[in-house]
Amino acid sequence: MEFAMNEPGTRSSSGVCIASEEHGLCIAAIEHGTQMSEMLRSSQAASTSSLTSKLSGLNDLYKCVEEFLQLPQNQKTLSQSQQVLDGSLRLNDICSTSRDVLAVSKEQIQNIQSVLRRRCSGELDITNEVAEYLKTRRASKKTIKKCLKDINAVEPVAIESMLKDVQALTAEVFNSLLSYIGGSQKSSWSFFNQRSEKKAATSFDVVDAMLVKKVNVDMSQLVNLESEIQEIDEVLESLFRHLVKTRSTLLNVLSN
């Protein structure tokens, strides 16, 4: 998608970007938004690094949004926009759910690792832990499927061009994130026979397939996935705080 805002120094129908302070914030938002748009276009293969880069980009963008929403002229423009608030609520919920899914996955992976580390001799049965992990993954995929539908329900707001583009970018990044966490929609049993497919396998795919087969459980793969989850969640936590702050500002604007 293209990040399109009124250029600084021009007057939109809502009168946004008139004062010099607004000009600076418009420029900063345009720069961050353009970078995000380019990142979304160029990032073909899903990876932890690409996801954290996108989430970090959103963090920078929301810093501009928070300052932008503090300006009286913009608050006046948004004072009657319930649609802005609805979109903000959906994005908050999606972000919170994403963090919950990551937390549950991380906990189950740690449980399996704990059993493997206690293995002193012979085979230590990890059937229960694996079954619980796979049960959790099935539940997570159902949750993710619902969230992806909710993302499509986030309607860009026409009243203010910057929030329209920011919400659209945020929804697109969450789409990438949840698709990555959800992993392959195909059966994990056939995963290793699908290695030649164009879509790159995620760490979730690799661990899912390994635990379904319950052969040669590789501790390093579990450690790697746990590390990736931690890395993503750290950036996601920061974004969640920005989303909450933005929603709080919008609530204040609409209640005045």
TrEMBL record:
GO terms for biological process: root development; shoot system development. This is Uncharacterized protein. It comes from Chenopodium quinoa.
